[in-house]
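stage 2 :: seqdesign
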């Protein structure tokens, strides 16, 4: 008769697992939660705002991101500014440490940090090469609004109020866990993203919108 051997972890591995769990808990639950809106979401709210949400081309977001892979876990501040022709995403540690600035204008993508300035054909390839992980920036442009990226298959499950609850697209699974309100629009405040063994948490604490054309 064979007996199952209890699983054991190297001390360093145990510390890493504990650190990863604390990291996710910190970003998910305690990362500067803003006051919640004093109105509730109602059935029909999502449908009534979808046209405005789709047309939205300009915003600034401040928040947090946590990334967990089997080999590493990181958390960072996130500042994202988007206009119709340009985007700039800054990812940095406390007090700006280890800042990475990703910029694109439809023709060129660059990433700048303490090691220099680098270019690549796509933001995903650039982030993977220089940061060790990447997020699907082109699709994320839509996902942070609660919308599927166009022209690719997707599945969406809605909650009781008709808002997106779970979205699957391009191999990613997104869970919309909390919503906030800015300039009369309901927008995601917290979502989790999974792709294989990569797990990401986005906490979008502050939305500033400008829906007018520049």
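stage 2 :: out
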């Amino acid at each position: 008769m064979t007996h199952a051997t209890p699983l054991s972890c190297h001390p360093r591995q145990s510390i890493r697992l504990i650190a990863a769990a604390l990291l996710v808990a910190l970003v998910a639950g305690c990362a500067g939660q803003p006051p919640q809106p004093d109105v509730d979401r109602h059935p029909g709210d999502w449908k009534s705002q979808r046209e405005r949400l789709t047309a939205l081309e300009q915003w600034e977001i401040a928040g947090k991101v946590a990334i967990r892979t089997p080999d590493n876990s990181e958390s960072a501040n996130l500042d994202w500014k988007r206009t119709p022709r340009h985007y700039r995403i800054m990812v940095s540690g406390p007090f700006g440490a280890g800042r990475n600035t990703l910029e694109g204008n439809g023709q060129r993508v660059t990433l700048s940090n303490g090691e220099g300035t680098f270019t690549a054909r796509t933001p995903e390839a650039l982030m993977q090469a220089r940061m060790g992980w990447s997020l699907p920036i082109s699709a994320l442009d839509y996902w942070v609004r609660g919308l599927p990226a166009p022209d690719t298959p997707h599945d969406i499950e809605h909650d009781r109020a008709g808002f997106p609850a779970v979205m699957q697209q391009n191999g990613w699974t997104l869970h919309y866990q909390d919503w906030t309100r800015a300039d009369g629009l309901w927008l995601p405040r917290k979502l989790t993203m999974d792709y294989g063994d990569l797990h990401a948490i986005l906490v979008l604490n502050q939305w500033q919108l400008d829906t007018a054309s520049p």
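stage 3 :: structure notes
- The chain has one domain: 45-209.
- Helices lie at 11-30, 45-55, 123-131, 137-143.
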